[in-house]
Amino acid sequence: MNWQSIEEGAVIKHDIKKSPKTGDWRYMKPKVDKKTCIGCGQCFELCPEAAIDYDGERKADIDYNICKGCGVCATVCPQKAIKMEKNS
Amino acid sequence: MTDKKKNLALTGGAAAAEALKQINPDVMPVYPITPQTPIIETFAKFVADGEVSTEMIEVESEHSAMSAAAGAAAAGARVATASSSQGIMLMAEMLPIASGMRLPILMLVSARAISAPINIHGDHQDVMFVRDAGWIQIFSENAQEVYDNTLIALKLAEKTRIPAMVIMDGFTTSHSVENLEILETSVVKKFIGEYQAKNSLLDFENPKTFGPVSLPNSYFEFKRQQIEAMNGVTEDIGEILDGFGKISGRNYNIFENYQLDGAEKAIVVAGSTAGTAKTVVDALREKGEKVGLLKIKLFRPFPYKQIASVLANVKKIAVLDRSISMGSMSPLYSEIVGSLSMFKSTGEKCEAQMCVYGLGGREIFAKDIQEVFEKMGEGGVKYIGLK
C-alpha cells in the first residue's frame, strides 16, 4: 500500500479475510453444552457480533474468531446450556 | 446548439436556482439563511410546481444539511445545497468529511460577514474561513457567472470527485437583478451528463465500508492522495471550460486577465468588485495609464504558477481582500505573495500592497479603486472606506 494505490476517499471493499478478528479481544469464552442446547436461537439474535450459527445438529455453534466473550448468550440461554469459562 | 439561448433578468440567487433547475439534482438538503435564501426559496417553488424531481429535504440546521448531503452523495445521488455565513460555519465539521470521502457535492454560497458583531451583508469571511476544508472554491463576479459557474462546478466536482462551492457576493450579486443568458435545458443536460457515482452505499452487489477509522498507518496516505486530486483540478477544469465555451460562447479561464498585458500596476480582486475595478481600469487606460486587473475565479485550488506567470511583468500590485485573517495577512494577499515568491522568475521585484475592503457590506466605489491605483506601493495595510 502507498498513497497512490490506497482506496479513494477511504471507501473500502468488504473482504471478510481482511476484517479484524475480534476473537482476539476475548477474556471469557462461552462454551455450549450441545446436549442441553435446544437450538431455540435466542442467543443468535442477541449476539452483538453475529458470531453464533447452527451446527449440523441444529445446535448453537460459536465462531471463536469473532466472539468477543461478552457473555450475553450465556445470560439469555433459557436452558443454561452456555457457560463462560476463562479463555484458554 | 448555441441557437436557442434565452435572456432573462434574474437576481444572482435566482440565476443559481435556474441552473439548479436545469441540473435537477437528486437530493437537495437545505436550511435557510440570509442572503442565501433566495436560492433555495426559488428552487422550492420549482419543486412545488413539479418542474424538478429533486428530493428537497428541509432539515433542522446546516450541520444536518451537510450531513444529509454527504449521506445522499455516499448513496450515489447528485446532491446540491446552499448556505452563507453562520450556516457555513455550522457546516464546518461536515465539510472536510464530504471532501475526505470524495463526495462531489455542489454548494452555492452567497458570501456574507461572520459574527460578532452580527451582520448579514456581503463579504468573503465565511468562505475564507473554510478555505482549508478541501472543497473547490470558485468566485463569481455577477449573475451570469453564478449561472455559468454552477454548471461548470458541478461537472468539475463530479469529474474530480471533490465537492465544490460556487461563491457569489451576498446581496450585491445574490439580490441584484441583472440580465443574463441561460442555455437550453437540453444543452445543459448534455453538458453535465448523467451522473454515475464511483461508489454507492446502495450497491448491495459490491458492499463497501464508507468513513472507516484510519489510524497512523494509513491516514497520511489518504490525505496525500486527496492533495493530489485537488492539485489536479487546475488541469481538469481546462477541458470543462473549453466545453462550456463551445455551448455558451462564453470562454472562461481559471482567472480573468483584464488588461494585464503591458500593465505596470494591477489590482487583484475576487467577486463583484471586479466589475467596478474594470470600469476604473478602462477609464485609466483611456488616459494612457498602464493598469490592469486580475480577477480571481478559482481560489481552491489556488493556481499559483499560472497567476505568477500572468503577473510576471507587473511592477506594483494591490490585492483587495474582502476578508481578514486576524494576526496574519489577508487570505488572498498571502496567496498572491506566495505565488510571486514561489514562481515569479522573470521581471523586476514586485511590490504587493495589502488592502482590506468591504467588510460587513461596506460599499466600495470606483473612486476608491482609483485611489488604490494612485497610491499603489505606499506600503502598509490599506483599509479602503474605513471611517
Would you write up a description of this structure?
The complex is a heterodimer of chains A (88) and B (387). Chain A has 88 residues and is of the alpha+beta class. Chain A is 11% helix and 20% strand. Chain A is built from two helices and five strands. Chain A has helices at residues 42-46, 72-76; strands at 12-13, 28-32, 52-54, 60-62, 82-86. Chain A has a two-stranded antiparallel sheet with strand order 2-5. The longest helix of chain A is centred in the middle third of the chain and has 5 residues, at 42-46. In chain B, α1 (12-23) crosses α2 (37-48), α7 (143-160) packs across α10 (233-248) and α12 (304-310) packs across α13 (331-343). The longest helix of chain B is centred in the middle third of the chain and has 18 residues, at 143-160. Chain B starts with 5 loop residues before the first strand and ends with a strand. Chain A binds chain B through residues 1-4, 6, 8-14, and chain B through 100-103, 161, 198-199, 206-212, 214, 218, 220-222, 224-226, 228-229.
| Spans where pLDDT lies below 50 across 5 or more residues of chain A | none
Q: Biggest interface in this structure?
A: A-B, 12 and 24 residues
Strand content of chain B: 15-25%
Kindly, what is the distance between the CA atoms of the first and last residues of chain A, rounded to a whole number of angstroms? Answer: 35 Å
**Share of helical residues of chain B:** 25-40%
Features:
heterodimer; A: 88 residues; alpha+beta; two-stranded antiparallel sheet; 5 strands; B: 387 residues; alpha/beta; 6-stranded mixed sheet; 5-stranded mixed sheet; 16 strands
